[in-house]
């Protein structure tokens, strides 16, 4: 803008709320830090700013009149893999100069690989977190943790390489002799024809430990309460249980157990899995049934496309582990803005 007076620049993202919370906020912060922000140059209604005789506008795909509006000289598509191929075409035909697109190559299949990267007029710049001098230390630690916890996440977010097709959900779990001596919580997945599974979970140094306590089919609530009593399960410790079985939860509460509904809002399964994949998980050697589940726990496939939904088979222990970890740690951290 400083070197090319009169240039029109468009910054675009899939949704307006995401745009305002990221690129627009950062742009305004840069202006203020450099004493270049002037209220009269900022049209807050149109999300435009005039500087050095040039204009920059911030638009989103959920504003169709903007997408099909006037031409611009330069376009930046932020998080480009969120866009569709048609979004790209509509924006491209109204851009007279250069286009920039940034994205994490997390999608195994994307229109970007076929429609954009194959073009002769495209330059691909691969950068990683090591190229970002402004990255916070906790984010660096989180990314480098993928080396140990998830090979594909490390490939995408650590090395900046295209994601590979992976059906198996959890990788790099290991074994431990016992849970560490810290406070624990429980996860409970109800079943009858499927096993009822009770798992004890510990969190030490942001790594999770899991111990299979009960894994048994054909259990009524009466049977479950009897076994829990025999095992002397603490009635003070929180047990996160399947929220869809409210009646069984109420019966356990009447028996004195501190059972609460696990977080099962829309999207919680995928979010919980993603959260666990970012952490090291240690499974006790005696947790034989859960270990078998972990080896088979996979994403659904539709043809050659891997879906963001696990196969609902051999997942009782996987659910019992996810309920407490996501409800107690992951959900809280997400709401507080840590992840």
Question: Can you describe what's shown?
Answer:
With 339 residues, the protein is an alpha/beta fold. It has 2 domains: 8-125, P-loop containing nucleotide triphosphate hydrolases (Rossmann fold, 3-Layer(aba) Sandwich); 174-335, Nucleotidyltransferase, domain 5, CATH 3.30.420. The protein has 11 helices and 15 strands. The strands form 3 sheets. A 7-stranded mixed beta sheet has the order 7-13-10-9-8-11-12. Strands 2-3-4-1-5-6 form a 6-stranded mixed beta sheet. Helix 8 (246-254) links the parallel strand 11 and strand 12. Helix 5 (137-149) runs antiparallel to helix 6 and helix 9 crosses helix 11 (316-335).
Features:
339 residues, alpha/beta, Rossmann fold, Nucleotidyltransferase, domain 5, six-stranded mixed sheet
Radius of gyration: 25 Å
* Biggest sheet architecture: 7 strands, mixed
Strand arrangement across the biggest beta sheet: 7-13-10-9-8-11-12
Total beta strands: 15
CATH 2nd-level architecture of the largest domain: 2-Layer Sandwich
Helix content: 25-40%
**So what's the CATH class of the largest domain?**
Alpha Beta
The parts where pLDDT drops under 50 for at least 5 residues are: 333-339
The helix/strand order is EHEEEHEHEHHHEEEEHEHEHEHEEH
| Count of domains | 2
Strand content: 15-25%
């Amino acid at each position: 803008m400083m070197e090319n007076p009169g240039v029109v620049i468009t910054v675009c993202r899939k949704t307006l709320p995401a745009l305002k919370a990221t690129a627009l906020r950062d742009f305004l912060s840069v202006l203020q830090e450099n004493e270049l922000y002037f209220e009269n140059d900022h049209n807050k209604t149109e999300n435009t700013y005039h500087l050095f005789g040039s204009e920059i506008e911030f638009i989103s795909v959920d504003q169709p009149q903007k997408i099909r509006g006037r031409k611009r000289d330069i376009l930046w598509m932020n998080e480009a893999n969120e866009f569709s191929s048609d979004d790209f075409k509509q924006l491209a035909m109204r851009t007279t100069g250069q286009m920039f697109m940034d994205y994490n190559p997390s999608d195994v299949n994307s229109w970007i690989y076929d429609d954009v990267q194959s073009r002769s007029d495209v330059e691909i710049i691969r950068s990683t977190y090591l190229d970002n001098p402004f990255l916070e230390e906790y984010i660096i630690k989180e990314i480098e943790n993928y080396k140990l916890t998830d090979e594909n996440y490390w490939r995408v977010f650590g090395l900046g390489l295209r994601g590979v097709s992976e059906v198996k959900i959890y990788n790099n779990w290991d074994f431990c002799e016992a849970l560490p001596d810290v406070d624990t919580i429980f996860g409970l997945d109800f079943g009858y024809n499927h096993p009822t599974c009770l798992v004890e979970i510990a969190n030490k140094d942001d790594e999770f430990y899991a111990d299979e306590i009960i894994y048994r089919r054909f259990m009524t609530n009466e049977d479950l309460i009897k076994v829990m009593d025999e095992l002397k399960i603490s009635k003070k410790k929180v047990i996160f249980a399947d929220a869809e079985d409210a009646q069984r939860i109420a019966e356990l509460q009447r028996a004195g157990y501190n059972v609460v509904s696990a977080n099962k809002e829309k999207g919680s399964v995928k979010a919980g899995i993603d959260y666990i994949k970012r952490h090291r998980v240690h499974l006790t050697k005696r947790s034989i049934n859960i270990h078998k589940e972990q080896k088979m726990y996979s994403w659904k496939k539709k043809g050659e496309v891997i879906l963001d939904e696990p196969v609902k088979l051999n997942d009782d222990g996987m659910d019992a582990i996810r309920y407490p970890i996501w409800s107690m740690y992951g959900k809280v951290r997400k709401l507080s803005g840590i992840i």
